[in-house]
User: Fold this.
Amino acid sequence: MIENDKPESSKAGTDYITTRQAAEMLGLSRGTVQQMAESGALVAWKTEGGHRRVSVTSVKEQIRRRAASPSLPRTQTPELSVLIAEDDVSLQKLYGMTIANWGMPVALQIVGNGFEGLVQIGQQPPDVLILDLMMPGMDGFEMIRTLRANPALSAMDIIVVTGMSPASIEDRGGLPSGTTLYSKPIPFHQLQGYLQAKLAQRQRGLMSGS
Assistant:
């Protein structure tokens, strides 16, 4: 059966999505999501037409749990891992092309929202996270709060690149200390310097450990 991809709302006002959308958010197959719904791991219900709908809140909780779970330790290598969370497709391409042209040993991953970002971080935390604040679903504010609340991830290097004004950011509760803030347009020269410094630090660590 073909499921309607438009999110629905329950009588209580809770947003529900299709199993396909839940599977994309969680990085799992639809079959696995259906099994999770049957077991109660995800809150779900069926429409009169027999289509299953999954609670966005329960999907979000699963992602948070995954992000909070112990991740595999990173092997110290000369390569720097960078994760970018940015929903603008044109900016995603700009990030990818620009960083590739630097010729630096960087393993780059790009995701379109905070949900996907937490899934990636839960599987393997990056050395540096670069993110926008205004994204659909889970925005950058909530993503950062989730990460900083996890002791295993609280020291992660986080760079915010946003078009929001400092006043607007403060109105939303501000950013945790230790978060680097840049304003859009993307300051690639400063980002390049930041990553170069991290790579130099990595190289010194490898040499001292040899």
